[in-house]
Specification:
Blueprint lengths: L2 H10 L3 H4 L28 H14 L8 H6 L8 E5 L1 H9 L8 E5 L5 H6 L1 H4 L7 E5 L2 H4 L8 H17 L3 E5 L15 H18 L3 E3 L1 H5 L19 H14 L2 H6 L4 H9 L12
Parallel strand pairs: 1-2, 1-3, 3-4, 4-5
Helix pairs in contact: 1-3
C-alpha cells in the first residue's frame, strides 16, 4: 500500500456532501467563509495517478481532516452527561466499522485512518472539546511510529499526547489513554521495526497515566500474541483488529475505563489547582460553559 494513500486515507471518508461536489472549482487558499466547500473535487477518473493527485491536494487543503466529522459534530445534541469521545486513527475508525454496536449515543467515534498524533491534536478542539464530553479516550502514536507523518521522535509523540491531555483537563474532561496495539511490522513500511519503539512509547504512556491520575486501558497486554504481534484470529493484517480483536479491546475497556472506575482514580496537580479556583469540588463532570 502506498504511503501517499495511507497519509490521506483519512480524507477518503469525507461527508457525503463533500464527496458529492464533483464539479471543477477554482482552488482557494487563505481565509474563506467555508473551508470545507473549498476542498478539491473528487476526480471523475478513477485512475491511480488521478486519485493520488487528488489525495495530495486534499491533504494540503485539510491536513488535520477538520471537515471529516464537521456535519456529524453539528448534528449532535449540545450536551450529554455520559458522552465519551474516542479519538484515534484507523484502529479507532475501524472499531466502529467492525463492531458498531459498541458505539451509540454516548460513545462517539472520531477515529480517522492514517492520522498521526499531530493531526489528532490539530482537530482535538473541533472533534472533542466542542462536543462537551464527560471523557475522551485517546489512542494515538502507531502512525507516528510507522512514519506516516515523516521523520519524528518519541518525544514529539509524547508532547502531542500530553498537549491533548492538558487541553482536555483545562475543560474538565476526563482522560482515558490506551496503549498502542502490538505490531511486529507495518505492511506499508516494512523497513521500520516497530516492536522496540512501541515498547518504549507504551511504557511512557502507562507511567504518564499513573503519575497524572489518568484512566488507562492496556490494549497491548490484551492483544499481544506472545511475540509482540497480533494473532491471525485477532487481525487479518497484523495491524488492524478483526471483530474478535475488537471484542478483546471492548472487554479491556469495560474492565478498566468504566465511568465508575474512572471517577475513583486519583487526581493530579491539575485537579488540585482547579479545586482551588472553584468553590465547588471537582468531580470530573463535563464542563458547562
Amino acid at each position: 500500500m502506498k504511503i501517499a494513500f495511507l497519509l490521506v486515507v483519512t480524507t477518503f471518508f469525507l461527508p457525503a456532501s463533500a464527496r458529492a461536489q464533483a464539479t471543477p472549482r477554482e482552488e482557494r487558499v487563505g481565509i474563506v467563509d467555508d473551508p470545507c466547500k473549498a476542498l478539491p473535487s473528487h476526480p471523475s477518473a478513477s485512475g491511480e495517478k488521478e486519485m493520488e493527485e487528488w489525495q495530495r491536494k486534499l491533504l494540503l487543503a485539510d491536513f488535520f481532516s477538520l471537515c471529516r466529522y464537521r456535519s456529524e459534530n453539528q448534528s449532535l445534541s449540545p450536551y450529554s452527561s455520559g458522552r465519551i469521545i474516542f479519538m484515534g486513527d484507523s484502529i479507532t475508525q475501524g472499531w466502529k466499522e467492525s463492531r458498531p454496536e459498541f458505539f451509540g449515543a454516548n460513545r462517539i467515534n472520531r477515529g480517522i485512518s492514517g492520522q498521526t498524533s499531530a493531526q489528532m491534536l490539530g482537530r482535538f478542539y473541533a472533534d472533542v472539546i466542542a462536543l462537551r464530553p464527560f471523557a475522551v479516550h485517546i489512542l494515538a502514536g502507531a502512525n507516528d511510529i510507522a512514519g506516516n507523518g515523516g521523520p519524528t521522535t518519541l518525544q514529539n509523540i509524547e508532547n502531542n499526547i500530553k498537549t491533548m491531555v492538558e487541553i482536555a483537563r483545562a475543560h474538565r474532561i476526563r482522560i482515558i489513554l490506551g496503549t498502542i496495539l502490538p505490531a511486529a511490522r507495518y505492511g506499508w513500511r516494512p523497513e521500520i521495526e516497530p516492536i522496540p519503539q512501541i515498547a518504549v512509547l507504551n511504557s511512557w504512556i502507562k507511567s504518564y497515566a499513573r503519575k497524572n491520575g489518568l484512566g488507562l486501558v492496556d490494549y497491548y497486554a490484551a492483544l499481544d500474541d506472545g511475540r509482540h504481534g497480533l494473532s491471525r484470529t485477532d487481525s487479518d493484517d497484523g495491524v488492524h483488529p478483526s471483530p474478535q480483536g475488537y471484542a478483546k479491546m471492548e472487554r479491556a475497556f469495560s474492565a478498566e475505563a468504566s465511568p465508575s472506575r474512572a471517577m475513583k482514580r486519583p487526581r493530579s496537580k491539575f485537579d488540585r489547582s482547579a479545586k482551588l479556583r472553584s468553590s465547588q469540588s471537582d468531580r470530573w463532570m463535563p464542563h458547562q460553559g
